[in-house]
Design brief:
Largest sheet: 8 strands, mixed
Radius of gyration: 17 Å
Helix content: 25-40%
Number of strands: 8
Oligomer: single chain
Order of helices and strands: HHEEHEEEEEE
Shape: elongated
Structural class: alpha+beta
Strand content: over 45%
Length: 149
């Protein structure tokens, strides 16, 4: 690998980590930095929506606050770089919890993100993301730690 290829792969790795961090922290400005302005995002495989970045960003900002606990893990990246474009298929594992009295109802989603990436002036960005769900465990109970008065 050339130094440029190594640098590109590290930057793409950072991009995918930034995406997971943005979703879990519900930081929609950070989320937007992961995508091109006209990016197409398709979350329909998991029951979500598909559309351009502004529409999907608004939708996520409305629905994800219902989940006080999320943890998006993005792993097993298969990255193919061709100049200023790239493809990436990476696995995701998403535990998510919904309020249920004094505890959470927990479920796990797993699958793949299939991305088309472009090198922009500000670095690598996702131009297209299509989610491919492999499984879900909706719904399992998670015990919360005892609350002290």
């Amino acid at each position: 690998m050339t130094l440029q290829e190594i640098a590109d792969r590290l930057e793409i790795d950072d991009l995918l980590t930034r995406y997971a961090t943005a979703v879990d922290s519900k930081d929609w400005d950070l989320f937007a930095t992961c995508f091109t302005a006209d990016a197409f995002i398709d979350y329909t495989a998991a029951g979500g929506i598909k559309g351009r970045l502004p529409e999907v960003r608004r939708w996520l900002a409305e629905v994800l606050p219902a989940f006080p606990m999320t943890q998006h893990l993005v792993t097993n990246r298969v990255i193919v770089i061709r100049g200023d474009t790239a493809t990436c298929r990476c696995a995701f594992f998403n535990p998510m919890g919904l309020p249920d009295g004094d505890s959470l109802t927990l479920f796990f989603d797993g699958g793949y993100y299939n991305d088309k990436l472009v090198r922009a002036s500000e670095g690598w960005r996702i131009a297209e993301r299509v989610e491919e769900t492999s499984y879900t465990t909706r719904l399992h109970r998670l015990m919360s730690p005892p609350r002290h008065a």
